[in-house]
UniProtKB/TrEMBL annotation, chains A, B:
<feature type="domain" description="Aminotransferase class I/classII large">
    <location>
        <begin position="34"/>
        <end position="381"/>
    </location>
</feature>
<keyword id="KW-0808">Transferase</keyword>
<dbReference type="InterPro" id="IPR004839">
    <property type="entry name" value="Aminotransferase_I/II_large"/>
</dbReference>
<dbReference type="GO" id="GO:0008483">
    <property type="term" value="F:transaminase activity"/>
</dbReference>
<dbReference type="GO" id="GO:0030170">
    <property type="term" value="F:pyridoxal phosphate binding"/>
</dbReference>
<keyword id="KW-0032">Aminotransferase</keyword>
<dbReference type="InterPro" id="IPR015421">
    <property type="entry name" value="PyrdxlP-dep_Trfase_major"/>
</dbReference>
<protein>
    <submittedName>
        <fullName>Aspartate aminotransferase</fullName>
    </submittedName>
</protein>
<dbReference type="InterPro" id="IPR015422">
    <property type="entry name" value="PyrdxlP-dep_Trfase_small"/>
</dbReference>
<dbReference type="Pfam" id="PF00155">
    <property type="entry name" value="Aminotran_1_2"/>
</dbReference>
<dbReference type="InterPro" id="IPR015424">
    <property type="entry name" value="PyrdxlP-dep_Trfase"/>
</dbReference>
Amino acid sequence: MISEKMMKLAQNNSAIRAMFEEGNRLAAQYGRENVYDFSLGNPNFPAPAAVKKAIVDVLDREDAVFVHGYMSNAGYESVRGAIADSLNKRFGTAFGDGNIIMSVGAAGGLNVVLRTLLNPGDEVVTFSPYFVEYGNYVRNYDGVLVAVPANTADFQPDPSMLSGMITPKTKALIINSPNNPTGVVYSAESIRKIAAVLEAKQKEYGTSIFIIADEPYRELAYDGVEVPYLTKFYKNTIVCYSWSKSLSLPGERIGYIVIPGEADEYQLVFDAACIATRVLGFVNAPSLQQLAVARCLEETTDVGAYDTNRKLLYKGLTDCGFTCAFPQGAFYMWMKTPADDREFAGAAKKYNILVVPGTSFGCPGYVRIAYCVAKATIERSLPAFKKLAQEYGL
Amino acid sequence: MISEKMMKLAQNNSAIRAMFEEGNRLAAQYGRENVYDFSLGNPNFPAPAAVKKAIVDVLDREDAVFVHGYMSNAGYESVRGAIADSLNKRFGTAFGDGNIIMSVGAAGGLNVVLRTLLNPGDEVVTFSPYFVEYGNYVRNYDGVLVAVPANTADFQPDPSMLSGMITPKTKALIINSPNNPTGVVYSAESIRKIAAVLEAKQKEYGTSIFIIADEPYRELAYDGVEVPYLTKFYKNTIVCYSWSKSLSLPGERIGYIVIPGEADEYQLVFDAACIATRVLGFVNAPSLQQLAVARCLEETTDVGAYDTNRKLLYKGLTDCGFTCAFPQGAFYMWMKTPADDREFAGAAKKYNILVVPGTSFGCPGYVRIAYCVAKATIERSLPAFKKLAQEYGL
């Protein structure tokens, strides 16, 4: 009775829901503090105090009809201008308000961009492992997600593999750096090579191939590692940003899309993305949050706290004998499993540890451990990880 | 280069954008106060003071991780429970939090519901005149919008016409009451007849046909007219509500979906709608606004102010010789045009009057005049309407 697409999704959804229910069952049985739930990318650190101050300031100073009213589907011009200025200052770009569309988080932004670009049967390439929702987003518009196999040496993207997977039907390449789930930051060298592949393929096929840069983790990079700004490497780049992680506002659904003026048929793409924002039912990004984040463009979350967690968890897991990539960004640890990853994630539950199998990211043999949790959760979890390691003879 | 669907929309969009640009051009030339812009359903009255109080209260009392964090895709359980209780009290229904999904406004809710129900080629029926976006929303999921011709006698829906337009492919009927653009409130008698037609057709075809009740204007009804609550008339009813108009929060994108427990395969429909909320990129309705509106369930906007506008405009227009339906709800006047409606709307611009041709709502021969404006705008516009009437010999 419901749509066939949704029926398939409802059936596939059961694995994820089973994990939620398992977490709740374990918490009820052992107490929430004795369950080590590393399954979700929900920041445990509060939004900076500046966010509350900004919201109250907006409510105090601005007219309610303006604050809560409709504006252009692209968002408030003033907000888009302030974001453009901030990006220009940070990255030496030359954006204006005409390059920015406010979006309902990065997930909303990605859907707007994919709806703008895709015809049925068009292909969207991404590197494994990848955020599981990309497949759903691309299928929303009857596109086909094409996954480049993982480069398990260091999880940098492999441009040589990429080249063979681009076809005349390729409309876009989704790049997610800092990466969910590996924590890897794609290097400028990787990006340059990717850009060269795409330039060559655009010429070969006479098509436009967009990089869609999914950047919710841009501000979460450690040890001073630089996260290259992709529009500077490749002109057909569209950026989808979100404040979900950088300001710990995931529930607010606030982000933006950047469409550079130098992109092919910029004006048409921009106009179509504004219309897609409207017809997909977003209409516009939430208005109060638009005005609030514009006052917090210099703010970031406490990266130091994530860094502490990163080091603590990495040391703890490697001391247990596990093999992990030391993450350069985001808040995920990508750990090799000594057995089938789904079996391993199942075994971990016996010790009240919840992690997501790599299979869910198109890359079996690993699990993703989200360390956006309280430090105490990591500390308490380490003896449980030790027992899990011993079960596998590590 | 962009998708073909978007290309068509970008081309059709030009008429609406032309109106925006015309409004700005006129405002620059004559001053904003001398332009009578009745084209948009953007409430000119501010949100009640209780909304600001509620937002500040949430920020002061609740933990920031809770206020701005992820929750279930359906929304906070406490918020959904409070809404269910409020509906039960007002309408004698028996909803619980398991019947409510928080949505990104009614537009987001409609997209979630249509994505949940539609397979390509499925038909969605609605009564003319109708909100122009319905066609776009239905086409998002490759459905076909089927419009029942307008009953120009009184713009109540015509159930006898409806019957002949239901086929085995009909998945839903969208009902919008109080109606945009006519301001008509569908009577209990009309609803009962519609329900009888759908019941008979469900039996005849062995299908489930849903009423989708698009209810952003529910609270805007005048003279004590009752707006029937549709789940009580027909069990396969899904309600899409929004606080855009009732609390003057259109920019915040906050509303909800009701899926009654007695609907066919309720649990499957509910679960699928939660997944659709996620995969379409909404993820969840904006979190702070969820918590704020839950504290304002007894609040409404100043219906008296709209009522004043309604009477003032109706008297002014009929005094000029125009023929209008006296609206029972919403904030639109539906006026018969003495010439082709597009030509008439074009002529109105000469007098700095901006109205939307009925053709945009699938019903030529009328214009929609949105009176959600300042009273002074209506007062100043009446001499201009008088000149317009004289131009047409009224």
